[in-house]
Amino acid sequence: MPPVELDLRRLDPGEAPRRDKLAAAETADALVVRGPVAALNAVLALLLKTGRNAVVPVAWAPTRDKESAALADALGVGTGRPRDLTLVRDDHGGVLLHHGRLESADGGRLSSRVGLRAYHDDIKVADGDVTRIDVRPDWSAVDTIGVTVMVQPLRPTRRTSGRALQVASDPARIVRDGVPYGRPVQRWTWYADERVRWRLEP
Prior knowledge:
Radius of gyration: 17 Å
Strand content: over 45%
Helix content: 10-25%
Low-confidence stretches: none
CATH architecture of the largest domain: Sandwich
Number of strands: 14
Mean pLDDT: 95
CATH class of the largest domain: Mainly Beta
CATH topology of the largest domain: Tumour Suppressor Smad4
Number of domains: 2
Largest sheet: 11 strands, antiparallel
Order of helices and strands: EEHEHEEEEEEEEEEE
Shape: globular
């Protein structure tokens, strides 16, 4: 059967697709996703929830925004053969493809700080007040995420590479691939799950 196409190009910045727009993905044997990073994120999160991420190949036709272009380049969209790729997950049922951020619950103004303790694998990367933590899957490596901790604006950041980031914090705001999580959190984990893959069609 031909792939099912999901046209999600009309998403506004910071918006995730409504569940009814993803309904066809629940039973499709193959998918073509048209839209920004948030669209691909939502589809892969749904496939993960239904346990079908490893068996449903996904082709992505990105929009022309900067984030989509950067991710498409990192993934090699439109080149090569189908590939089974790392799935970066969080402990709240979501996935991460391009950029995650943890910041103060008031929306992450540069003057704002959030108190936290964070470990990247066995390295303590933060213990105290920070401006934000940025997380990016490393598509040039296997089962790896890069973490950047900004303690203060315009000061040097700390960068590490590893498999999992665990954070315990004051109430904090999470942004996954441009879409804010629905409520402040005090614990959060992002991790590259070596047991789970998703298939990208060229």
